[in-house]
Amino acid sequence: MTLRLTEDETQALRxxxxxEGRSMQEVAxxxxxxxxxxxxxxxxxDDVLDEDLPHSIxxxxxxxxxxxxxxxxxxxxxxxxNGLRLTLSNDxxxxxxxxxxxxxxxxxxxxxxxxxxxxxxxx
Length: 123
Prior knowledge:
By secondary structure, the protein is mainly α. It has five helices and two strands; from the N terminus they run αααβααβ.
């Protein structure tokens, strides 16, 4: 692979490498590794957050009485960021969170099934 940089990019890379006492190649390779790692983490979060987030927040006792509200806020925020909206009724949302907090819905698959049915595209 040949990486072609603009003159400004080359100069910035050269200056960064000089400041760090490293070769330009070392600095560029580290930047690529960091980018790939960051992208991989973002993809992993996108894949699991919608399913794991409410379970982790609602089932954890760190916030004592606020966990269920925080879990629902996190689901709504996550859906909004991803162009979705929660379509559960208030009663269904309450049932979901009480099921998670009470252990009736204890697996990610059970929670995901409810969220898949209760999530739609944002209009």
